[in-house]
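hey team, just a heads up i'm posting the complex here instead of the shared drive bc the drive is being weird again. everything in one block, sequence lines first with there labels, then the predicted structure for the whole assembly after. its two chains so it's a bit long, scroll down
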Amino acid sequence: MENFKEKFLTNYRWYFLFYLLVSFAVLFKLFIMPGSISGGDWGMPANFSQLKVSFTSLLSSWTHAGQLFGTRQLAPTSIIFFGPAYLLALLGVSISLTVKLFLLVIFAAAAANMRLFLGKIGLRPIPAMIAGLVFIFSPIFFDYALMGWIYVLFALALLPLFIYFFIQAVDQRNSRQAVLAGLIFALAMIQSQTLIWYPLTLFFVIIGYCRGKELFFLGLKYGFVTFTTFFLLNLYWLPSLLLMPDKAVTGSALVWGADSVGTSYRLYSSNIIKLWGSLFNYQFEDSYPNVLWPLAYITPLLGFSALFYWRKFRRHLGYLILLFLTLVLLFSVDRNTVAKLPFSNLIRDVARFTTLSTFSLVAMIGITLDNIFLWRGKKIYIAIIFLILFLNIIPFWTGKLFSGNTQDYDFRFRTKVWPSDYDQFDAKVSNDKEISRALYLPIGGKLSLTDDQKFSGAFNEIADVYPSFSSVPGVISISSRGQAVPSEIIYQLTEAVKNQDVGSLLSLMKITGSDLIVIRRDMQIYDWDTKQETDFESKLKALVASGKVEVYYDSGDIFAVKFLPQTNLIDSMSGPVEIKSNFQKILANFISDQIISVNDFYQIGNLINLNNLFGDKTALTFNYQDTSFSKYVSTNPRIYQFFSLKDLSEKIPMTIWWLNEQNKNKMLDNGLREENDKALTQLKKASFLESNAGRYLVYAENGGENMTVWFQSSSPGSSENFKINDSNYTLSASSNSLKKIGGIKLDNGVSIFQVESGLVPLFVQVDEELPKNQPPKITFDKLSETGFRITADNISDDFVLNFLDGFNYYWQLRNSGGLFSKPIVADDQHFVSDGYANGFSIKVSDLQKAGLIKIDSSGKKSAVFYLEFEPQKFETIGEVLSLAFLLVIPFIVSFRRRKK
Amino acid sequence: MRIKTRIIFLAVLVLTIIGLWLRYYLKTSPAVLNLGSSEIIAVNYSPTTDDSPEAADAENDNVIANSAKIVADYQPGVRNFYISSTIWPQNFADCNLFWSSDPDHFLAGVGTIDTKDPLAADFSNLFSDPDYQKFVRYATDQNYDLYVSFDGSAPINHRLVINGGEYDTDQSFGQFYRLKNFHSDSNQFAGIKPLDTNYKIDRAVFVTKNISSLNQFSRVISDSDVKMSVKGSQVEIGLPENSFAFIRSERNLALGSNQSKKEIVTSGVFYDGESWSSSVTPTVNLNLPHYFNVVSHSGAYDSTDPGNSARSSKYSLVSLVLIGLGVAIYFWSKIRPFIINLPAEIFNLWQWFRLFVRQVPAEIVIYFSIVSGLLVIRTNNYFSSIIDFPFLATTIFLFFVVYRRFSIRFIATLIAILVFAIAILSQTDYVVVQRNLENIIFILLLIATIVLIGPWKSENKEKRRRNGKN
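-- predicted structure starts here --
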């Protein structure tokens, strides 16, 4: 018996089992709830085929999972979870069960690792065991599990193990342990913020634990070993990100994102010391009875009391308190300062640093408990402390993980079983070679279900998993991370659907190369009522008669129409026609673009009209998008766009209102408030509220003698008057709503147009001439997600190659498919086409220089070249190296041991 | 005290505590709920005060009282109604009031507007006339009666301009002028001004019957249509499809449910029209808030009695005192000498303080002069904002820490005391003091860390000294 007790308390396997049982007792209800965990940020694949798609998408650096137009896979670290999950699925374990088991194991491992770490720093087994329980019954485990932030919990669960191995390395002067610490670090990297949390922890441990010159340098040495191991294990993504950086990681935009700011909403000092608080993560607090509130301070009281035992734990208390104070520091500095820190996009959500404070405070509680156990003859005090600790975790043992929500945003564990229609439809689409892209409604990636109360209404939405993880991409996710280049086209699509403007939708589907539009009848689309939903469906059905679409699927909850004819994902075009707005120059006359951004005035607003004017075989490119995203410089603008003063005058009161609204929040970050006040002062000075109706400005560089101005008119049958800089003009009647007037002379700089109501100036065309060259015929083979082989036949002149995935600077045309291929088009000839896609301006001379042109017997020229996503090269090499290193690690660790 | 006596005392205490809680549960009566037939009035207004919760409450009471007067004129036949301004129960309300506000508060109170929404144009139209004095956001396509009162004397012609259109009013009652049957068309916003802009509008309120566009549910008022079964605090409610019931109780119970979207529970005031005669100005008892339970879905609900929490606190407090007494009796032998020695202890403390003052007079003089200096500078308005309470408190704490030569045990004691203080303060409204104390804890932790990590050399010396090498 004594032997068993000894084993149970000191053997990792045994106490892991104990924690597993305890965690199961808390979470067992999940295992009897049918379906996969859903709601909040839970968005795991629901079945095997979805798992397969998400797994394979992680192997390439460009993915369509969760984004219709594709996006760069910056750090495919979730392979750490999806890899084993895929293997389990091959053995027949369902993904929904794997996710539940993963959550269970995270709980058990977190407690066991804490127990192991505390044992290492000199705590007796029983207090260390209890501290393990305190750790997993802390608010962060409660809230983040409900929210679906399991990767954060996974990183947190491994943190004690990471420190354990590092301290072992220093104590035993043993690099093998440092290698293991690096391995743990690499595993925890499943959560991107680990890149801040773990190095910070390592730094604090070195300065706190490695006291004395000799130890300090030893600490640095093993820190280096840990980092090297981490780097080698992350070769599959890190080098490509470092060598080909992306704004999503290097920028600071996320720090200012609405939901990043929002997460700190309930983060204030008293919540920090109780380990509570964060925007959508306060289910624990809500479930905690008010009458017990003072008892919640048992956590800081016990934790900080560890200072009484500083003589014994001096080397540990230093770094533990520093870890605790990191959150305090980030909380007390304003966001302006946070945004200036390196990798601030990774810091992003300050409230998530509760991971560090939870770990450190619980470890300190362990230290205090260890010493309390030494109180002889005062068992009653010990009993009272345990009673309070037990009461402090009341939401766990009263089943509040599963029930008890009082507000919409205070959700608890929910599961979902999807109707079989979804699987049938997905199977049909996936097996249909003709379908390459589908637009699922509603747009946004989060769904409110009309037939399931649990997932109905704001904050209760469920992730749109079917189109996210389908082999035919179909979802447009909208988040604070933004949609990068395609954001304007996504806006146009959203507006067309919202206004039920089927005509525009049809044109946009063609421009975006989407073959299907899919309606799920059990989902809420915007705030449409049943009538509006059926109206939309009938509008689509009406198109069937016109021969523009055909019904593709109509059964149960799903209705889909297919658009005819289809657009090729890669095609040749003439052009490009450059469209210049000069909005920045115009706006600068009125107000700073720091306050009202040029991005607020959608440049591609008249994309459909332009597309009709030039025909769909001409590539269009908009200058403001090019200057933001590409290296392409507009040299030959053919179209100038109008800037509406009315739009601007609407923006101003709205911006004032929005800033006032933010300032109303008394807990608002000081940096934000200062910025808001500055903006408000500027906005209140600007006065646009008079005589802006019907006023439009255009900025034509160098002016022009013979320009054509296009208008949209609501009374096409009659002639209409307008003024340019106070000179009068008359627009004659026309057969459709599009009217034009030629021979207009505009000076260099701003011209002011004044129009009557019902008339909207669309754009100014520099000359009447349209691009004429005949583009070559394109055929292509998809080699992988990141590589295409393209054949161009009948090349007669320079042309544009249009690739309908979202623009990314790293897509390149290469002369061969090999590792050492060369680019054939210069970077400054790669532009944003049609408001979102990749356009390459190809000169015949470029193809000739690369030796790609072949001339057949009839004198026709053709060429074969490759379209590739460059980061993939680093990733493919990196994947092999990482895997090789992972396989070597067991040998490194065991080889030395045998020698010893 | 002998052991036997102690045991008897303890037994009596335990029995008393058990008896106390037995009484608590026996006195808890089951939920009694009935169907309410009184009208529901929803009031919407933009708060103008953000100084304190008390001021906000006072403003809310004022708006409710004024709204009740308006409703008495608008629907003279209605004698009893529930009136609320908490959460918009407008989907279910029989009558809705929209109070207008001045530009600043209106802008601050408007919810999110999509800047590309057609609404946005409607919104910006409001600002096309800088003379508009009051603004309101209300429901579209509704008929409203508008009640307006003016600052000082009212204009002679009482004509109003609303969203560009001119309208006549007649004097209705008291200081309010009334415009009947104003239609909101497709506008969600309205701007109002008197035709003669030399006069200033004091208050303006749009009143309408239930909002047709929101009215998806019909109200059930007959007991035969609603199934209600009560088991303790659990209430099972069955309703016909697409209907809602207004459920109230004499004891003011609030219903809640595990599943969201099933019910709207909100608080308001019951307006008892029966208690006043038509000649007397109507009043509402603002001190008597009621819970509205507007239930729109069938299902199981929990009822909570707001009176119960005060009751349970009272019982808990008495139990706590009794437990404290029990502990005192159990540890009597240890407590007795302490009580007997108390005067001596206090004398010792005094002696310690005298010694302390005598030992380091110079240091104490410096600390006190700095603190007094800060206090003097603080009388200046500019400095008072810099040298605020946390700054002063931190300085004083820092002096304590300096005096104890950065002793970690001392810092730990201070932190423990502060955590206790915060735990107590968390039950009160002294939020600012609490936050300041928490900041002091963070500073003390930082000092402790610096001391712990501290210079390596001194530690090596200490080690050597301990090892007897020095």
